[in-house]
Amino acid sequence: MNVAFLGLGAIGRPMAECILRAKHSLTVWNRTAERARDFAQHTGARQAATPAEAARGAEVVITCLPNSPDVESLLDGDTGLLAGMQRGSVLVDCTSGDPTTSRRIAERLRERGIDFIDAPVSGGVAGALKCALTVMVGGDEKVLARALPVIQSFGQKIVHCGDVGAGDALKAVNNALLAIHIWTAAEGLATLVKAGVSPHVALDVINASSGRSNASMNLIPERVLTRAFPRTFRLALLEKDIGIAAQVAREQRVPAPVMQLTADLFTLARSELGEVADHVEAVKIIEQWAGVEIQ
Ligand code: NDP
Q1: Which residues lie closer than 8 Å to 70 by C-beta, 6 or more apart?
Q2: Which numbered atom of ligand 1 lies nearest the CA of 31?
Q3: Given ligand 1 and candidates 93, 219, 237, which is best to mutate, with the most ligand atoms within 8 Å of its CB?
């Protein structure tokens, strides 16, 4: 298929590589043109100068940007997506977005005969490098079927979740759980270190017991105990995700004090650690408060 990909960030770039590996014809655009040039030179994809140029002739356009307002901001103007996308094409938004903005984008595209699905991904950069992401899709199932050959090139588990916005909502709640698990595992381990228990011993037991999570089984052993803290998924993006989850809970009138509190804690962590810090670096805030390192 003719595919356009916009947003060659930490996860977007390996996803775009998967699309090429699956032998689709690919045109890329990135806000910082150098990144798209580098990608095009290394892979043989075409580089477009504007979103409109990337979208021209594409049956499927994929966006993978920080948040939904960033996607919406690419729609308008002479160089915007709407100036290039053809009737009958599909915008597949792989951003971890918010349902309200996604529904508004879908409505604006529908007026022009263009379809929209929200299709956020899970599995991290490691999953993208293996072209084995989980993709959660909101929108019309027939539209998903049309875009499926492209989504399958980077997705291993592809699940239709409901109407437009359902993928965003599910992704936000999943990442809220991730944030809560990282934060509470770090609180627990800092407590145990101060109480004289080695974090290696603590994790050995917790990971064979009912308190285990992806944070305790993978993230903390691989990234915190080793002090490696690789930068694969920005803390600022996880802060955004848990903020969306708390917002969805408010809209649905579900009391969600733990999600809201953790959203506030991640806002605090981001303001302390900055825009480029990795999400697991949030642990450093708890270490500072406790006056110990979890290692
Ligand atoms: P990055 O911050 O690494 O990359 C963001 C990309 O978006 C870059 O290409 C950047 O361009 C572009 N961009 C940022 N702002 C704008 C804008 N206003 N207009 C146009 N382009 C813009 O993010 P990730 O690749 O990590 O994440 C992308 C999405 O995927 C996010 O929604 C994130 O939550 C989600 N995600 C990320 C995962 C991960 O492990 N990294 C895992 C699962 C989901 P430029 O090069 O100019 O900065």
Answers
A1: 95
A2: 47
A3: 237
- The structure's pTM equals 0.97
State pLDDT tens for residues 85-116. 999 999 999 999 999 999 999 999 999 999 99
- Give residue 61's pLDDT: 98
DSSP string across the chain:
-EEEEE--STTHHHHHHHHHHTT-EEEEE-SSHHHHHHHHHHH--EE-SSHHHHHTT-SEEEE--SSHHHHHTTSSSTTSHHHHPPTT-EEEE-S---HHHHHHHHHHHHTTT-EEEE--EESHHHHHHTT-EEEEEES-HHHHHHHHHHHHHHEEEEEEEESTTHHHHHHHHHHHHHHHHHHHHHHHHHHHHHTT--HHHHHHHHTTSTT--HIIIIIIIIIITT-----SSBHHHHHHHHHHHHHHHHHTT---HHHHHHHHHHHHHHHHH-TT-BGGGGHHHHHHHHT----
Q: Which residues pair with 93 in a beta bridge?
A: 63, 118
pLDDT, residue 257, reads 98
Contact 83, 52 (CB under 8 A): yes
The pLDDT value given to residue 39? 98
| Cβ of 89 less than 6 Å from ligand 1 | no
Q: How far is the CA of 255 from the centre of ligand 1 (A)?
A: 30
Please report the pLDDT score of residue 36 as a whole number: 98
Alpha carbon distance 25, 21 (integer Å): 10
pLDDT on residue 224 = 98
Cα(50) to ligand 1 centroid in Å equals 17
Point out the residues of the chain with pLDDT beneath 50.
none
